[in-house]
Known about the structure:
The protein is built from three helices and no strands. 85% of the residues lie in helices and 0% in strands. By secondary structure, the protein is mainly α. The chain is rod-shaped, with a radius of gyration of 24 Å. α1 runs parallel beside α3.
Amino acid sequence: MEGNQKQSNAMAIVGLIMGILGIILSFVPCIGVWAIVPGLLGVIFSALGMKKVEGKGMAIAGLVLSIIASGIAIWQWYALSQVAGDLDKAADAIEEANDAYKDALENM
């Protein structure tokens, strides 16, 4: 029974570490979208740690941090996709303006 408890404590510890790593990564610009990986791993390990451990504090903390990290990563992914779409539209507008300028110069 003692070996099983140590294994489940290890799951909670790994979940907490993944949650902390995910939170740290989520606040790094341009890398924050990759916080989804440790965030999801943290959710899995924390959930497994909560099933087997009587003292669930580390598992709950890991679960909360992992969910927050995953949420921030998903938000950053959405924001970056919106920015990429806006940049594409701006590039098209610049290209059209450049073509209009060239046509105006040719007609002079």
